[in-house]
Amino acid sequence: MVAVLLSTFIGGVFAAQNVPAMQQVFVTNFPKNQNVTVTNPTTTSITVQNLALQKTILVVDRQNITLPGCILPVCPGIPLFLATSPVNSSLGFREAFVYIHVDSVSPGTSGGIAYLIVNQKPSASFPGDSTSTLLLIAGNGAVANLTASVQSPVTGEQFVFYLQPQISTPQTFTNITLSVFLEN
After folding, report:
1. CB atoms within 10 A of CB 70
2. Which sequence spans correspond to the domains of the chain?
């Protein structure tokens, strides 16, 4: 009777042949003094499709940047490279909303202080080219807690960001945070 139950139990343990590879299996109350051989089943090719509808990428987190002024009368000046998003970070998405926050700008001024240029270069998967520009506008005096956003179509696999001076005075941007919200 014990031999029949034991063979039924062990046969039941090894009956499951379609166990996925790399799965953790815990066996409790297993009979002692048994020789057990476990082999991994053959792996099969599985295609996983990314069904994400939204994704947020933090590109710059609390970075300080000094933007040189532009030379009058040729304003705005030459763009200063700010950052790039990770490679292939926008694959599968159609729209991007770029958010920028700056704790302070010194010296502050009234009117436009800089342009945020959002660019996507063409690639094999995205033959188009896209550039969106956002004018960062400040009030009088020192600028504090400046937040702005721009919408951009996704035409590439990676974003490139620039800050372009709008005034002739060099300015220090404190704690720039730049993030991209992607959606289908």
Report:
1. 19
2. 54-183
Would you put residue 62 in left (φ > 0), alpha (ψ -120 to 50) or beta? Answer: left
Cα–Cα nearest to 126, from 168, 95, 156, 91: 156
Q: What value does the CA radius of gyration of the chain take, rounded to a whole number of Å? A: 29
pTM over 0.70: no
Q: In what order do the strands lie in the sheet with 80-84?
A: 80-84, 159-165, 111-120, 130-138
CA angle 95, 97, 102 (to 5 degrees): 165
Q: What's the fold here for domain 54-183?
A: Jelly Rolls (2.60.120)
CA–CA distance, 28 with 30 (Å, rounded to integer): 5
28-57 pLDDT tens trace: 554 555 555 544 444 444 444 455 789 999
